Amino acid sequence: MKRHHGKRIMLWGGIFLLLLLLSACSNSGDNASDVQVEESKKTIQYTTITGEQIEIPAHPQHVVYLGDKLGDFLAMDIPVIGNNLVHASGRFYEGKTEGIVDVGNPGDLELIMNLEPDLIINTYSQDTNRNEALSKIAPTVPFNSALPYRERVTEIGNIFGKQEEAAQWIAKFEAQSQEMWDKLQLAEGETATVFLQLGKTLYVMGNRSLGAIIYQEQGFAIPPAVKKNIIDEGLTFATVSEELLPEYAGDHLFVLILDNDESQTEADRVLQSPLWGTLHAVKKGNVYIASAKWNTDGLLALDQLLKELPQWMQRP
Questions:
Q1: Domain Fe/B12 periplasmic-binding spans what residues (predicted)?
Q2: 101 and 206 share one domain
Q3: Final residue belonging to a domain, choices 119, 145, 171
Q4: Under a CB-based contact definition with an 8 Å cutoff, are residues 237 and 196 in contact?
Q5: Which residue, among 48, 239, 252, has the nearest Cα to 143 in the 3D structure?
Q6: DSSP per residue over 57-87, as a string?
Q7: Residue of 36, 40, 96, 44 lying closest to 70 (CA atoms)
Q8: Residues 65, 73: contact at Cβ < 8 Å?
Q9: Most CB atoms closer than 10 Å: which of 17, 58, 98, 252?
Q10: Among 251, 252, 254, which Cα is nearest to 308's?
Q11: Cα–Cα distance between 195 and 189 in angstroms, integer?
Q12: Nearest-CA neighbor of 194 among 145, 253, 245, 139?
């Protein structure tokens, strides 16, 4: 009898210990969950590009980004749940926008509200009424997507507490960029111009988007007319009439064409015009035609763009 009684005591003791372990694990899991909840509730004071101080989540988990540089946020693993996906074109976006809700352009307020974001990044902040409406849904940070990539990526790092990651991205790209320019071996003072054909309108780009890449310190020089009439005026781009083409054209011409029939037809007309044939770059065969999707300095595109440029120029 005593032997059986002893076994029962050992059995109940084992069960008791098991229950204690399970309880400890459960409490540990609850604690971890509580920590995550507490982390998600933390806020910081952030000074926007307009000088306004607002309270934003320290670790946002449901971000709606309204703008054309979604690739920056995806590359830096920002948890974007909504975007106006009309801008997310190009093969560098393939397979990377799944799960992101298209909120329309510039963004349907009801759709955005239904997503229950904890932070909104708004490129279209010039509309005061709209910005106020967005701020009632979630803390809203005005954002300038036209900034050169160094400043833009640094700003994203500051908003999301990813300063070190932002610095690493910039360093990585600059190293790759230096390697590309070393291979291209440009002559000192060689100039280049970026023309952009959108529908029937022809634009000249300044030092933004593709211009931010080709006008790097070790890259092409900026034609005087581009510097004077666009960059010095604080513009991103400007329309140009056909008769002014010789004034803006550099030693190399990058012609970017929107992928639709109207843009292609108009570009063909310009490229076959007598005036175009008189340009120095055309005579030298220094004209590179590509899709307007490459008019970018977004993080997702940069790696591929650095490989594309030498191929356009047919250099190793």
A1: 61-316
A2: no
A3: 145
A4: yes
A5: 48
A6: ESS-SSEEEESS-HHHHHHTT--EEEE-GGG
A7: 96
A8: yes
A9: 252
A10: 254
A11: 19
A12: 253
Say whether both 195 and 131 belong to one domain: no
Token output for 171? 């360093």
Q: Where in the sequence is the domain holding 118, given as residue range(s)? A: 44-145
Tell me if 151 sits within 8 A of 97, measured CB to CB: no
- Residue 261 inside a domain? The answer is yes
3-state secondary structure 181-216: HHHHCCCCCCEEEEEEEECCEEEEECCCCHHHHHCC
296 domain-assigned: yes
Cβ–Cβ < 8 Å for 299, 75: yes
Counting the structural domains of the chain, the total is 2
Other C-beta atoms within 10 Å of 224: how many? 12
CATH of the domain at 84: 3.40.50.1980
Mean pLDDT of the 159-182 span: 94
201 CB contacts (<8 Å, ≥6 apart)? 239
Q: What is the pTM of this model?
A: 0.80
In a domain, 72, yes or no: yes
* Residue 199 and residue 280 in one domain: yes
Q: Examine the domain organization and report whether 191 and 286 are in the same domain.
A: yes
Q: Which two tokens stand for residue 174?
A: 């600059």
Instruction: Looking at the chain, list the stretches that DSSP marks H as alpha helix, in order from N- to C-terminal side.
Output: 2-41, 70-75, 109-114, 128-137, 149-160, 163-184, 210-214, 224-226, 245-248, 261-271, 274-277, 280-284, 299-312
Least trusted range by pLDDT, from 63-67, 86-90, 129-133, 236-240 = 86-90
Would residue 153 count as lying in a domain? no
pLDDT at 25: 54
At 5, list the tokens: 């009684």
